[in-house]
Amino acid sequence: MGMVELPVRCTVVKLKTGETIMISPIDFTPVQQAEIHGLGPITHIVAPCLIHHLWLKKAVERFRPREVWGPPRAREVLKDLTFTHIFGLDRWPFDLHLPAAFVEGVPRLNEMVFYHEASKTLVCADLVFNLQNPKGWGAPLMLRMMGTYKRFGVSRLQSRFMKDKQAFEGSVREILKWNFENIAMGHGDLVVGHGRERLQLALRERGFSA
How many domains does the chain have? Predict the structure, then answer.
């Protein structure tokens, strides 16, 4: 309804092995497209959760990747999209350089998160938000309700959508074993430095054991 402008981030990772992986494609500008093409062919495109898929089809048509990956239940929920692989059913081939983890307990999202070891960066979609400069007339009200107004935090929507708190907490404990320092989330400013500690604090603030 135009209340809040919600920025969306796509992360593109070029691995040492030569593959270039696009996580959560967006509606790219011509400048962004040129920057991406400068990295070489996109070999893999990933929809990281069940709600970050709006521009997936357009990105697949534009970049023609070798593989298209979706989160668990993507073929059941996103029937208008075509996935060559599904996390949980197929083995993710980049565990050495870009391992993936499934955030259990929130089936409406079924989010996959990734750890880019070379840059010590956690890549996620909706696990956390960091909207430091929100825009839109309704931003103060809406984002305060979600607990993410001008601050880094876990949205209250995680709790609203959650079906299994114990499974969720087990997942985040596994994620926190990664030695990440930075966080690239789907919505908001990058976190540079102390990302692991900040994620722990944000989870505890929302009442989760981490």
Answer: 1
Report the distance separating Cα 42 and Cα 209, nearest Å. Answer: 38
Query: Is position 1 within any domain?
Result: no
Does any domain span residue 2?
Answer: no
Tokens 């929809």 identify what position?
47
Residue 1's pLDDT is 55
Question: Are the C-beta atoms of 92 and 147 separated by less than 8 Å?
Answer: no
**112: CATH:** 3.60.15.10
Q: Which residues of the chain fall below pLDDT 70?
A: 1
pTM listed for this prediction: 0.93
pLDDT for 146 equals 79
Sign of the CA dihedral with 15 first, then 29, 181, and 185 last? negative
Q: Which domain holds residue 65?
A: 11-205
DSSP 8-state class, residue 189: P
Q: What pLDDT is recorded for position 132?
A: 84
